[in-house]
# Entry
Amino acid sequence: MRDKDDINSELEQIQEDLMTLRSTLRSIKLKGMVLNETSETVQIITFASANRKTGDMAQVWILNKNINPVQAFKNGESEKICFDCPHLKNKTCYVNVGQAPQQVYKAYKAGKYSPLDLNVLKVALKWKAVRFGAYGEPVLIPLHLVQFIVKYSRGYTGYTHQWRNLEFLEYRAYFMASADIAGDVTEAHAMGWRTFRVKGSEQPNLDHEIDCPNALTGVQCRDCKLCHGLGAHGNGKSITVIVHGTQGKINKFNAINL
# Structure
């Protein structure tokens, strides 16, 4: 049994940490931070979200640097941040680029996000779970930054369609392989990835797959956090969720999954 003085000391430290976090965020009015920039892309972390499925997680956005998401989607520039994702090609992506991605881009261009400061980021992450790739391909985030965020956050989720590319193999420790058909699951598992598969309503789970807990119980991603790399013990179950969204997107999805 733990000593009462130890418990009280730990509670005092938690309260002190919370006060430090609130003071830091209040003093710098931290809405987000620019994690990394290249000549063509930018990766941004924002620290609040009203997403009903994920809960209030910090969100990492991968955006085109010099063109807004709506225009990028229209003229094909989105390939620079989404690569060959089939949901870009087939217009089945669940993200509405005219909403949150567009707002994040505008705030970035208006200079509302702070430059990278690892000490401030460490404090801001202490009580936050992180969602890698709220929009865009998270393997564009330098691996050392992924590792830093993972180390100092209260958990994380992330998915990539680039799991076949051996250049990004190290990311399998942190991200799930996005699988679009049953054959993808088998192939990704053989390469050592866990998978996240969006499936049709009549498609069964495969071996080593379980339903998304949010769909079963409503638990939010910030509390569930099963979608993180290889799992806590390196052998976690893979996750499935039934396709959702507008009926048009569902129909398009079902058409490419026959």
About this structure: The longest strand covers residues 58-64. Residues 4-28 form the longest helix (25 residues).
